[in-house]
Every structure is written in structure tokens, then in C-alpha cells.
Design goal:
This protein is an alpha+beta fold and 172 residues long. Helices cover 24% and strands 29% of the residues. It has a 7-stranded mixed sheet with strand order 4-3-7-6-5-9-10. Strand 3 and strand 4 form a beta hairpin. The radius of gyration is 15 Å and the shape is globular. It starts with a strand and ends in a 5-residue tail after the last helix. Pfam families: Redoxin. InterPro entries: Redoxin (IPR013740), Thioredoxin-like_sf (IPR036249), Thioredoxin_domain (IPR013766), TPX (IPR002065), Tpx_CS (IPR018219), Tpx_Peroxidase_subfamily (IPR050455).
Length: 172
């Protein structure tokens, strides 16, 4: 089990702890318009970014940065996953001009959180997702990053460097 921190206090994460090389759990989430999006389908490469809620300053900034920095990667599906209702995610994307990435919700069954080990356990944030990044290629986890502090940010430079070294994507 992984722990993250909030103001130096440990917060346990629930679910399976995945490692690079593991089979990526396949599941289906709902997008902002209630359409299904499959996570970890064979033959695809996806960047999966989990975060607590688009309605917070750090997550909002991270979503805008993702839309700007990662969406230009050709043949890569970039998906932000949160516990926000699909309708709220749709309003957020419309208001913030986010149209280059997929925004999906795990609110209904918390399946992503449990299968990818990002579901926040006992704390005032219980039920939300921790901030993490996974790259899934052909059904395998090839990259993993957990943000240790709940209010911290995903290290885009590290993710971009991995994508550059591994797949030749240009650095921003």
C-alpha cells in the first residue's frame, strides 16, 4: 500500500499497487459527455493522469498544463481521471477551453482508483484520487509516477523526458 502526505501527515491509498511491467487493468470510465472511454485497451498508448478534482486550484492548473503540453503527442491518448461528475467536468472543459485531451470520471464505481492504487483512504479526502501518472502501452504499465504530497504537482518534465527517451517525442 502506498501512502501520500498532506501537511506531513500520512494518508493511505487503497487498491492495488502497480509496478512498471505489470499488466494494466482494463476498465471503462465515463467521459464528460457520458461516452465510455476504455482504459488500457490493446494496441494503444495512453497517458493516464489521476487527480482529486478539477474544481481545485492545483488540479485546474494541472489540467490546463496537460491540455497544453501533452496533447501534441501524436498517437497517444491523454486522459485525466478524477472523481468529478461528468457534467462538472464538461463545464470545466468548456469554461477553460480544454479540448485536446479526454477528461474521465471514476465517481460511479471507484474502479480506476482501486485497480491503479490511487484511491485515497481514511482522511478528510477519502474517496478522491491521488495525483499520479501512468503510461500504458499495449496493455502494460511502462511508466509510473505518484505525487508524494497531496497538493503537489505531477512532474511533467520527468514524464516528457520518459516519452522523449522511450518513444522519441519532442521535448516542450
Amino acid at each position: 500500500m502506498i501512502n501520500i502526505k498532506y501537511k506531513e501527515k500520512d494518508i493511505p491509498l487503497l487498491g492495488d499497487e502497480l509496478e512498471v511491467g505489470d499488466e494494466a487493468p482494463r476498465l471503462t470510465l465515463k467521459t464528460k459527455n457520458l461516452a465510455p472511454v476504455e482504459i488500457a485497451p490493446p494496441g494503444k498508448t495512453q497517458i493516464l493522469l489521476s487527480m482529486p478534482s478539477l474544481d481545485t486550484p492545483v488540479c485546474s492548473k494541472q489540467a490546463k498544463e496537460t491540455n497544453k503540453r501533452l496533447a501534441s503527442m501524436k498517437n497517444i491518448e491523454v486522459i485525466i481521471i478524477s472523481m468529478d461528475l461528468p457534467f462538472a467536468a464538461d463545464r470545466f472543459c468548456a469554461t477553460e477551453g480544454i479540448s485536446n485531451i479526454i477528461v474521465a470520471s471514476d465517481f460511479a464505481f471507484k474502479e480506476f482508483g482501486l485497480k491503479y492504487g490511487t484511491l485515497i483512504g481514511e482522511s478528510i479526502f477519502a474517496g478522491l484520487l491521488a495525483r499520479a501518472a501512468f503510461v500504458v502501452k499495449d496493455g502494460k504499465i511502462v511508466y509510473k509516477q505518484f505525487v508524494e504530497e497531496l497538493m503537489g504537482k505531477i512532474d511533467f518534465k520527468d514524464l516528457e523526458l520518459f516519452m522523449h527517451k522511450t518513444y522519441g517525442y519532442p521535448l516542450n
